[in-house]
């Protein structure tokens, strides 16, 4: 693996003193597609800083049906609830695009939050950004068309990955958006026919990002504004 911790954009925002304390304690891990980093109700033994993988936080209903509440990649951290004292997660964290991440044990993470003001502020700022994404995702899923929802999901995924190509199945996409698989196929074909994506079995390649943004609703720009605020307010000291 040739990546450095700074390949995760959240870790890159830390001041050098914080990096010097945290980076030696990070562990590189490879995450496989379909792997559950957390299962709802399970203990969170580590936090994860993705580098080139994509992880979805998924809420699973009692009926067994599921829907994604946020998508995380190199811009953030998986397990942020540990920073406010949570030990278990109410949602599942599932790897959608395989790749590598850095992980930090829960005790070390908590000590850093408690002792390092810059680190603590960054984690709190990211929590705000993640909550905004969750709220906007819920609104989008309720009020906007599936075409717009898929465009939002693709744009957010592209921002969180080093590649413009996604390798995942129609079934997986349908589960993330909480819709029927046939509906995902219909929307993907429309975007393919418009020349915005290249859609083949198990692969989506974005060809026209500008076109994707035009098809999308305002939810994507709102989420990105929150991400930009995070970078600006990374260190108040």
Automatic annotation (TrEMBL):
Please give the GO cellular component terms listed in this UniProt entry: cytosol
Record keywords: Nucleotidyltransferase included?
no
- Keyword terms: DNA-binding, Transcription, Transcription regulation
Q: Which domain of life is it from?
A: Bacteria
Q: Which GO terms describe its molecular function?
A: DNA binding; DNA-binding transcription factor activity
Q: Which PROSITE patterns match?
A: CNMP_BINDING_3 (PS50042)
Q: Where is the Cyclic nucleotide-binding domain?
A: 10-95
One Pfam match: HTH_Crp_2
Q: Please indicate if the UniProt record lists Transcription regulation as a keyword.
A: yes
Q: PANTHER family attached here? A: CRP FAMILY TRANSCRIPTIONAL REGULATORY PROTEIN, HTH-TYPE TRANSCRIPTIONAL REGULATOR ARCR
Protein name, per record:
Crp/Fnr family transcriptional regulator
**Which lineage?**
Bacteria, Pseudomonadati, Pseudomonadota, Gammaproteobacteria, Chromatiales
């Amino acid at each position: 693996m040739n990546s450095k911790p700074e390949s995760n954009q959240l870790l890159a925002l830390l001041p050098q003193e914080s990096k010097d304390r945290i980076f030696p304690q990070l562990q590189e891990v490879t995450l496989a597609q379909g792997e559950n980093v957390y299962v709802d109700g399970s203990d969170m033994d580590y936090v994860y800083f993705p580098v080139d993988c994509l992880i979805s936080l998924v809420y699973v209903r009692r009926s067994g049906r599921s829907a994604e509440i946020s998508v995380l990649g190199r811009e953030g951290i998986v397990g942020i609830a540990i920073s406010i004292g949570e030990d278990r997660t109410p949602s599942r964290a599932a790897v959608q695009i395989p790749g590598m991440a850095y992980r930090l044990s829960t005790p070390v993470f908590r000590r850093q939050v408690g002792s390092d003001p810059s680190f603590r502020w960054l984690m709190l700022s990211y929590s705000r950004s993640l909550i905004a994404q969750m709220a906007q995702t819920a609104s989008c899923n309720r009020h906007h068309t599936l075409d717009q929802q898929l465009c939002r999901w693709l744009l957010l995924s592209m921002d969180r990955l080093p590649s413009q190509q996604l390798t995942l199945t129609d079934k997986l996409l349908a589960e993330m958006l909480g819709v029927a698989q046939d509906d995902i196929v219909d929307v993907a074909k429309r975007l393919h026919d418009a020349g915005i994506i290249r859609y083949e079995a198990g692969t989506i390649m974005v060809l026209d990002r500008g076109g994707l943004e035009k098809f999308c609703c305002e939810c994507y720009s709102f989420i990105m504004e929150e991400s930009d605020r995070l970078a600006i307010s990374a260190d108040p000291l």
